[in-house]
Every structure is written in structure tokens, then in C-alpha cells.
Amino acid sequence: MLVRSESDLSSSASISPQFDSNDSVTDAKPLLSGASSPNQKRRRRASPDSCGGGGGQSFREGVEHVASETYLITRLGFNLLRYLGVGYRWITRFLALGCYAFLLFPGFVQVGYYYFFSNQVHRGIVYGNQPRNRLDLYFPKNTNGFKPVVAFVTGGAWIIGYKAWGSLLGQQLSERDIIVACIDYRNFPQGTMSDMVKDASEGISFVCNHIAEYGGDPNRIYLMGQSAGAHVAACALLEQAIKEAGEGESTSWSLSQIRAYFGLSGAYNLVNLIDHFDNRGLYRSIFLSIMEGEQSLQRFSPEVTVQDPSIRNAVSLLPPTILFHGTADYSIPSDASKNFADTLQRVGGKAESILYEGRTHTDMFLQDPMRGGKDKLFEDLVSHIHAGDSEALAKDANAPPRKRLVPEFMLKLARSISPF
Question: What superkingdom heads the lineage (predicted)?
Fold first, then answer.
């Protein structure tokens, strides 16, 4: 089995490939002029139709964007193979991944069409000055009033994360009158863990400070992450709490603006998980390069950090934390969420874990949403966001079942061969 050496990895990590060089870059042009708060009077309300990254583009421009995004995704895939080695284990998993993607292809086509051509999607909004400092916004069809907002940090093993991975979630939450902001960030080797946390924090800051201009309610912002994105988002929250608990540190956003944190299938104690990841194919040498060495594992393990008595004041600033996890998750065991929630409760934080019996890492994020109909995780998520809003809860209760995107036999077969 061929695995790149530490020296190769460290030298490669200095390379900064411009993954987003072909991505459509959209300046942050607000949809609502001068609407910085729900309490301010709004002169005119603009609809998502005016979004520069949505359906206002020509068919040719849309096709060109699809081509550039496909090229980017292909590069991310080869980037993953390059840094995880090309031994037998990864060859078989890559083949399984190809078959898995083929079986879910009917769903990917429909979601991709929505992502590239819907006027409800505003792609490529710039939130920072680093490569891949972009985010996508998903808008509800109903543009009346300010909407609750979910700032979503996508997963991807810290190597192949990309903002478009949140398009299915964005589409389905927008159908429930929720605005979704999918935050992109530098991945390894373009950046290491510190860069990812910094990017995520800047993306959250943009949402907190500018979402009202796009029709979002700045008093109802929820942070969410999935898999590696859940870990990155949790680290960003904890870093922000430590800054706010300190003296004299200026910050561009506040934890008081985040109503709750939702972690989906996340990893929160890297010290306990490093051997598990190595056995799963994310080799120890590579993982330590991503996390900036073994000495940084505790620093980037929220479950470990919150137990430090010197930051108890910071822990008290954290928003309520709800962690979702499937009990049949082999990529990141469900104990990761359960233990983190228990630890937060023990040190004075507000937290709970919700486990879904028999659900895998991809069941909760791909197969179940593509199955259509009622989805327990999705309903739990929406009920937390709409808690206290009787009108929204009534609409949720009468919402039509979600459309099936993939035949059941293909979903079952995909589940059986999934490499995750």
C-alpha cells in the first residue's frame, strides 16, 4: 500500500491550488436595501429572482457553470486519492464510491439542476479574502417577512468539503420557509485546521452581520455542521467563546446571535478517534498533517477543551447544542456525539444528543432525504428552528410529503455498498 511520507505531505501542504478559480464569484449585493434589522422599516422588498447567481442567467452561462463545478469536484476527488494513498483499500473504496454515486445519480441530477438553475439559489457570495471564501444562499419562495436562517458548514473528511454538498439540505429547508447559507472553506492541503476554523468563523460573521440584507432574521440564526463540518463549526464556536470570555479581544460577531448549534454526525474528540480514522483509511500521518501535529489534537477536540477549568466562563457562553447521530454510523461512531453532549452537560453547558437507530453516516444526509416522505431527523431539525412560532409549526404539520428522488431499490443497494 502506497502512502505518502510526512515530508511529502508537508511540502505539498504549502501548495495553494485555486480550487475556486473557475467558480462564479458574486459580490455580496444585498436583496434588501438598508434592512439591517427586522425592527427597521423596509421601503422595498426584493425577491430571490434578483439574485445574480440564480435563474437570471442564460442557459449557456448555466452550462458553463456546471462544467466548471464538475471540473472542481473531479479535482477534489483526485485530491482525496492523492493524499490518502492509492493502495488496495483505497482503490476498492474509490470503486465503491463510484458505484454509490451512480446509484444515487437520479437524485444528484435533480438536486444539481436546482442548484445551478433555480432562481432561489444565490451562489458564490464572497465573505472573505482567502481562496474559497464563498457561500451559497438558498431562499424560500415566500419572501414576506424575515426568515430564520441556518448557517451550514459542509463535511468532506477535511479534504473534499465543498459548499454545493449542502444543496439538498438547502433546498428542503427553504421549502419550510428557512434561509440556508452554505459556507465553503479551505480544505487540506490548501489549508490546515486553523485555516478551516478561521474561514468558518468569517463565514458565520458574514451571516450574522449581513443576512438581514437578504431577508434573514438576525435574531434567529442557527449554526449547523455535518461530519467534518460539524467538527469545524464546533471548533469555531468554542474559539469564539474563548475570545468573548477573555479581555480586550475584538470580535466581528457574537455567540449571542446564534440561537442553537446543530451537529450532524460530527467528531468532537480527535484524541479518541485518530486510531479509528486510521483503520477506516484516513491514515494517521495524513490526519496529523491536517490537524497540525499530534500536539494540536487536544486543541482541536472540543470535548477535551471544554473540560479545562480555566475556560468555564467560555463554556457558559456557548449556545444550546443539539447533536444528531445514527447508531449504525461506521465513519464516526455515535458515541462521539453522545459523549460530547454528556461532557457539555457536566461542565454546565446546554446540550443533548439525539440518536437514530440503525441510521448510517450517509442515511441521514443523503439516502433518507432522497427517499422523500417523512424524515425523522428533518422534522426534528425543523421543529427546533420553528420552536415558539405557532404559525410556522402549523404549516409544518400540514406540509406535503417531500418528493422521492431515487427509487427505493437503488437507495437500498447504495446503502449496502457505501464506502462511508
Answer: Eukaryota
Overall pTM > 0.90: no
- Cα–Cα distance list, 365 to 213, 267, 394 (Å): 29, 16, 25
Per-residue CA distances from 111 to 9, 67, 98, 108, 165 (Å) = 35, 16, 18, 5, 10
Mean of per-residue pLDDT scores for the chain = 84
* pLDDT value for 40: 45
How far, in Å, CA of 270 to CA of 273, rounded? Answer: 5
Look at the block and give the residue holding cell 458565520: 204
Taking only the tens place, the pLDDT of each residue in 349-378 is 999 999 999 999 999 999 999 998 888 999
329 part of the active site = yes
Other Cβ atoms closer than 10 A to 17: 11
Q: Is 179 left (phi over 0), alpha (psi -120 to 50) or beta?
A: beta
Catalytic residue among 329, 363, 368, 375: 329
Going by DSSP bridges, is the β-strand pair 121-126/134-138 parallel, antiparallel, or unpaired? Answer: antiparallel
Tens of pLDDT, residue by residue over 250-307, are: 789 999 999 999 999 999 999 999 999 988 888 899 999 999 999 999 999 999 999 9
**Considering 122, 231, 361, 386, which one is annotated as catalytic?**
361
